[in-house]
Design goal:
The chain has a single domain, classed as Alpha-Beta Plaits (2-Layer Sandwich), CATH 3.30.70. It starts with a strand and ends in a 9-residue tail after the last strand. About 25% of the residues are buried. A 4-stranded antiparallel β-sheet has the order 2-3-1-4, covered by helices on one side. The chain is built from 2 helices and 4 strands; from the N terminus they run βαββαβ. Helix 1 runs antiparallel to helix 2. The protein is α+β, with helices and mostly antiparallel strands. The radius of gyration is 13 Å and the shape is elongated. This is Thiamine-binding protein domain-containing protein.
Amino acid sequence: MRLRVEFTTEPFDLDEAPAHAVVAREVVEAAELDAVDVGPFGNTAEGGADQVLTAVDALLRRSLEAGATRISLQVNVVGVGAEGEGER
């Protein structure tokens, strides 16, 4: 199964990236994911279920430790395994 996670961390700071946002970016960029898109108002990452769920766990824990007061995320199933099951 393939998953896509979309997330934001708060509070926002338009002048400079807060520590929690930097940590979140570092977590997803270091994870073994197939696609990562980091932006100022939203972030997405995609990969296998185990890799995405492991990254989400680290993202939540480390971003909160770095000062995030709110983390919004959405996880979607974007496809199934490579065992001939096809895409959804």
